[in-house]
């Protein structure tokens, strides 16, 4: 900490710190040299394309090439007014928020349950990590088969328990069921990462603190809410940040399971941008829709960076 | 008496949370396995219990997968892209993370946040301009397009992760090496990199996982079946035919997911510790 601030004012520092600062100072070019390739790469392949996307969104370009003429904010105003966009925005928020609330609750429960050692814990942990390690586009194909309209094993199991009679549900064919199904698959996919992050957080709490709380006679819920939860709040936010980013920018689950249907009830901004920009060939409007994701993500990220910074200071 | 009752209650709650959620996590993989080895007639008979084998298990689906589709080629393609992307990511992100953690002044923290924020620019936004870039470089329908583009999402996060990892290493480590006569660069390669192997391994595993997960760029840039990665080959080529070969599909899913997961399982502890140092200060 000290050394990094003393670089800017080496002459004000104590002799000891000064010699250290001069080493860093003479090698500050090294810092640039080490970071230059990464910065150059990111500038060329993220920064520049991002600016191109910004330009596309105010142009009338299409996949066929097109004129690239400037049309101002026409794409945005055209997009915002459409029911398709409004539905997708609403679906994005429903999908993201419900998934994340459930993931936070379940990952905490799971991390708590995994605190103590028991026989078979390694196997359980392996099984828990499976959905996250497996390629998601392939995992969703297994769900497509599980939700199959004729051969759904889920319906078979429900019939067995007597909850359902006859044919069973069309899991991906009815609006609310389809949304529920993709939320379930999203939880299946993201819960492992959240659990791993939270386990790391739980593991970093010193045992003394738990012991002290036990000596003071705190019960399970008091212990959890007044001792454990405040300590793992920063890392919970890290888990939430990743969860929100992955949910808002991902469209594989929707692409493979519902294609946005039935009647756009599972269409989110990311998938709408894809279908408009690539399938529809309207690059400009696709870029405009995708751009609506950016402020959303920026707000999420900045909020968490501020909170993370604050917890680090105190 | 109440004490032991409570202990039983805790145990029961824990067991049921673990039981229900583990079933939820593992079920699709179990279902892949059962489907992959069932004879076709058995698979599509609605009167049969789907979990039982009424006819003897068969390898017909697996054979069809390898002999009648390009599945083996897709696996090789994925491994090819994955290995190259991991190498590029390490070459770019490890030095960058070190510079951000040690060699930068006030600009370092801001640059670090800037690099992290590029992770938030979704592929759904970048694939449109990047498809033009790829065409202009004559890399369309080539695996090299993926090698070029995939580090856009592995490098920012990996640099951020390595920065956190290097920050957790005491400065004394390099300073002692530098007093012993190493230059700063020498100290980095000879002393810091070797003790950071678990962090670098974390980055490698994380990057490889992300390559296997990626979908949007692959589906946009790659058009011929021979050049597909396993992540797009299975859902676009095997599913979008007129007939769904569920047996072969599930065999393909199982082969592409479970062996990798078993491999990762050997690194899980290192992985978690790498994550802790990167994400928790």
What's this model, at a glance?
The complex is a heterodimer of chains A (314) and B (281). Chain A contains 15 helices and no strands.
What features would you describe in this structure?
The complex is a heterodimer of chains A (314) and B (281). Chain A has 314 residues and is mainly alpha-helical. Chain A has a domain at 83-133 and 177-313: MetI-like (MetI-like fold, Orthogonal Bundle). Chain A has helices spanning 2-6, 15-26, 28-57, 74-81, 83-113, 121-133, 136-146, 153-161, 175-203, 207-215, 220-249, 252-257, 269-279, 283-291, 293-313. By secondary structure, chain B is mainly α. Chain B folds into two domains: 2-58, no CATH class; 63-279, Orthogonal Bundle (MetI-like fold), CATH 1.10.3720. Chain B is globular, with a radius of gyration of 24 Å. At the A-B interface, helix 1, helix 2, helix 3, helix 5 and helix 6 of A face helix 1, helix 4, helix 5, helix 6 and helix 8 of B.
> What percent of the residues of chain A sit in helical stretches (DSSP H or I)?
over 70%
* Count of discrete alpha- or pi-helical segments spanning 4 or more residues of chain A: 15
SSE series of chain B: HHHHHHHHHHHHHHH
Please state the CA-atom Rg of chain B, rounded to the nearest Å.
Answer: 24 Å
Structural class label of chain A: mainly alpha
End-to-end C-alpha gap of chain A? 15 Å
Greatest interface and its residue counts?
A-B, 102 and 101 residues
CATH fold topology of the largest domain in chain B: MetI-like fold
| CATH architecture name of the domain at 83-133 and 177-313 in chain A | Orthogonal Bundle
What is CATH's topology name of the domain at 83-133 and 177-313 in chain A? MetI-like fold
Which homologous superfamily in CATH is the superfamily of the domain at 83-133 and 177-313 in chain A?
MetI-like
Major beta sheet of chain B, specifics? Answer: none
Task: Using the alpha-carbon principal axes, give the shape of chain B.
Answer: globular
Alpha-carbon Rg of chain A, integer: 25 Å
Number of domains of chain B: 2
Q: Write down the CATH class of the domain at 83-133 and 177-313 in chain A.
A: Mainly Alpha
Ranges of chain B with pLDDT <50 over ≥5 residues?
277-281
SSE sequence of chain A, one letter per element: HHHHHHHHHHHHHHH
The chain-level structural class of chain B is mainly alpha
């Amino acid at each position: 900490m000290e050394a990094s601030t003393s670089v800017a004012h080496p002459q004000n520092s104590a002799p000891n710190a000064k010699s250290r600062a001069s080493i860093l100072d003479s090698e500050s070019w090294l810092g640039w040299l080490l970071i230059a390739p990464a910065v150059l790469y990111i500038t060329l392949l993220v920064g520049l394309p991002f600016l191109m996307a910004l330009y596309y969104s105010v142009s009338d370009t299409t996949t066929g090439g097109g004129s690239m003429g400037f049309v101002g904010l026409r794409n945005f105003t055209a997009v915002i007014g459409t029911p398709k966009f409004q539905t997708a925005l609403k679906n994005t928020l429903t999908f993201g928020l419900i998934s994340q609330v459930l993931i936070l609750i379940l990952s905490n429960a799971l991390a708590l349950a995994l605190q103590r050692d028991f026989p078979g814990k390694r196997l359980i942990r392996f099984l828990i990590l499976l959905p996250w390690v497996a390629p998601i586009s392939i995992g969703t194909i297994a769900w497509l088969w599980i939700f199959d309209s004729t051969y759904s094993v889920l319906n078979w199991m429900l019939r067995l328990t007597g909850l359902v009679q006859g044919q069973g549900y069309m899991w991906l064919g009815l609006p609310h069921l389809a949304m529920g199904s993709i939320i379930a698959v999203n939880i299946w996919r993201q819960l492992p990462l959240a659990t791993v992050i939270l386990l790391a957080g739980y593991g970093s709490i010193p045992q003394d603190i738990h012991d002290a709380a036990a000596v003071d006679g705190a019960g399970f819920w008091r212990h959890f809410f007044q001792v454990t939860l405040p300590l793992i709040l920063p890392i919970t936010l890290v888990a939430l940040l990743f969860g929100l980013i992955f949910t808002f920018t991902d469209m594989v689950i929707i692409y493979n399971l519902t294609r946005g249907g039935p009647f756009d009830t599972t269409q989110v901004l990311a998938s709408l941008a894809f279908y408009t920009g690539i399938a529809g060939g309207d690059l400009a409007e696709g870029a405009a829709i995708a751009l609506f994701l950016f402020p959303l993500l920026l707000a999420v990220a900045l909020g968490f960076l501020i909170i993370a910074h604050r917890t680090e200071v105190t | 008496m109440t004490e032991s009752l409570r202990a039983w209650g805790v145990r029961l709650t824990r067991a049921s949370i673990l039981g229900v959620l583990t079933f939820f996590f593992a079920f699709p993989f179990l279902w892949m396995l059962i489907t992959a080895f069932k004879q076709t007639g058995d698979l599509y008979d609605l009167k049969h219990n789907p979990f039982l084998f009424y006819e003897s298990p068969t390898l017909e689906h697996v054979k069809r997968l390898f002999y009648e589709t390009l599945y083996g080629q897709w696996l090789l393609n994925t491994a090819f892209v994955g290995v190259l992307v991991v190498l590029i990511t390490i070459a770019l992100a490890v030095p960058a993370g070190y510079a951000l953690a040690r060699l930068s002044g006030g600009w370092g923290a801001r640059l670090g946040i800037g690099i992290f924020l590029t992770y938030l620019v979704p592929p759904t936004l970048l694939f449109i301009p990047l498809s033009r870039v790829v065409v202009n470089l004559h890399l369309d329908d080539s695996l090299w397009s993926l090698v070029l583009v995939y580090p856009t999402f592995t490098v920012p996060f990996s640099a951020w992760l390595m920065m956190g990892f290097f920050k957790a290493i005491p400065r004394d480590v390099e300073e002692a090496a530098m007093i012993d006569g190493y230059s700063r660069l020498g100290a980095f390669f000879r002393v810091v990199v070797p003790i950071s192997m678990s962090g670098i391994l974390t980055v490698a595993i994380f990057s490889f996982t992300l390559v296997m997960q990626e979908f949007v760029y692959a589906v946009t840039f790659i058009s011929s079946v021979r050049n597909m990665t396993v992540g797009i080959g299975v859902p676009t080529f095997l599913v979008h035919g007129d007939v769904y070969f569920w047996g072969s599909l599930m065999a393909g899913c199982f082969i592409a997911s479970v062996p990798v997961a078993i491999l990762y399982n050997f690194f899980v502890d290192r992985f978690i510790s790498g994550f802790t140092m990167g994400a928790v200060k």
